């Protein structure tokens, strides 16, 4: 309570300071028009402090040409008004306490912008079509360290803890630096590593498409950021180095090195630490795709190749006891001339993470005690990602791309567990190992012979190998009714599995531009995928020998092929501010499945419709509607009917006669960013209804269960929504957001139909303020409610989390950072409550103009040992306590290159 009282007291003091300042402020109103008297929207208006020679206030005119500035009364300012194509306007004025009428300003056409002359004007915000350019120095405080700090200062931008960026409520899909991809356009690596001092401008690229010949028929809804570097950062090496040490052998070493010129740019990121700073996590490794998305996925068809990350715990700072991470990442772009460009990256990482937890598990439709499961896992992984790309564009009408992307790793996950259920204790020791490998190649050609016709051809080929093996040892005999083991306790099972996948896709597109508001697109495509799977179970005996089971129900030898031939027809039409894009995709499928001497399969023809509608009220204000019907097909792992051991109490048996699922997908999104008053409002609703959905039949025997996939007769559905509002004032920024999701899934447990309903809600409020550039304070409050209901059980959980962050700059060269969160976690079903809090602090010293910085860091000062979470699956409800890193200290030295 004392900590919470301190947070509110600090908030009150900041508010009092701001209120005292606000009493001296006056509102300066005006309007900007052209020589004909028509209002100019998006004109930039600045008031320059004539004493400090800095921007005192800044605004952008609205649709009526109006602007609003907040200034200190009695001071003299220089007013600057600019709009591209017009002569800039300047005048001096004194801000008065009262203002009778709005100031009227007329801009005259700039004759220099005609003919062959080009006028370049430095404006805080420049809007040109689908591109919005922000001049970073106008919005920043001057003490930002990394790109993420710069983006947080820009109106309409959000950056989360993982480095993911949203602009006006939309997720950024790709990040570029000086027009070139930065590690596949990854926002996390850029926001966490690119120095703030190098950033000149930030460009928001809406409807982004990096293929020149497709610019006239662009259907992309991608959002990209282009970070433009300062001129004095080019043709030189820049970046930073950090070295840190602490008690108990804590260490951190980090390096960022960048080089950019007209032809070459090179980026290097190196990191090694055991303090939980995840420069590149295993989640990031599996997330990287090389940018080579499925071609058939664009036509409403989805063939799901099971991921090779199944069963691997994804360690984060708030879920692991110990984290040891090493990273080496190199990205390059080389453009020897205007016709050809080479690009690529290599990322190598090594992790050694320890996780621990205690969970209470309540099984759906099962009577008896709750299972208590304690677990300690160690995950070791060495992985590599490699990509090489070549782009050849001899002229604006032709572009050829070739890309090759490879991923490989060596992963070991050892797990020590104890299960206590129904007065029985079971000690479990397991080891999962795998060495997945994949290589994917892509060739693309785009050709526009004239303004009316555009052709494209794309071919991809992917080869993937997976070999997940599972070694299980238990003190209680596992699966006694299914697996005929002959040994004694401890019982030891070995599950071996190999999956090979070969996938080839090709698509040809023809675009015909009928006129300025209509165009049509024809597509032909094919997806050919072949897979083979072999698996076996054996018992490891005490004398070192093995007992191999010859029962066909315990082995798999499967060949699986999937073919999809499709034709697509799309039409795009524009009615004023409304753009409609309906489409039809005709698919011919063939599935063949051969295993254990029998063959299954089917042929099917499906017509899948889609429509996209977008209404642009104005720039940065739109409403999007998307509806489509998609067909989802499963891969070989769900079709292999031989038993697979998944865990100490879970078996899986596939179903060779699975059919596809039908998904009806509806999405409605609203975005509105008002630059006149810096109000950002966004929201969305998504609904999905799934027919013939693949779910599991679950057969329980005590604690053990066998999962078998099937096409469920009842429809499953999910309804989710989100809304957020963000408003910037003179020294304040306030935000409110919420998200909710309700899902209904049907399955079958022990011959009984079961309906699972999950309703999750989360709400967040935030307030941030800056005082005299010396004190920055952020206060937030988050609350979440999770309700899980099945036929015979239900659970309700809630978590309340106030948070605070303080940044204080003092004695000119010192900076103090601290962040705090307090959690109250409640299981309202049984009335239990637990609390935990986290406090981190950092003190740094950097003499003005120096390249050296010295820093002392303290993490988890309160030495919290664990945090609470809950989860819900088709057969069990769990509450967890995750053990986290204990308190540690670091002393570090930073040097700017």
UniProtKB/TrEMBL annotation:
One Pfam family here: CarbopepD_reg_2
The entry's keywords: Cell outer membrane, Membrane, Signal
Gene3D superfamilies: Carboxypeptidase-like, regulatory domain, TonB-dependent receptor, beta-barrel domain
Protein name according to UniProt: Outer membrane protein beta-barrel domain-containing protein
InterPro entries, per the entry: Beta-barrel_TonB_sf, CarboxyPept-like_regulatory
Main location: membrane
Keyword Metal-binding: no
Keyword set includes Ribonucleoprotein: no
One cellular component (GO) term of this entry: cell outer membrane
Signal peptide: 1-22
Protein's cellular compartments: Cell outer membrane
Residues spanning the membrane: none
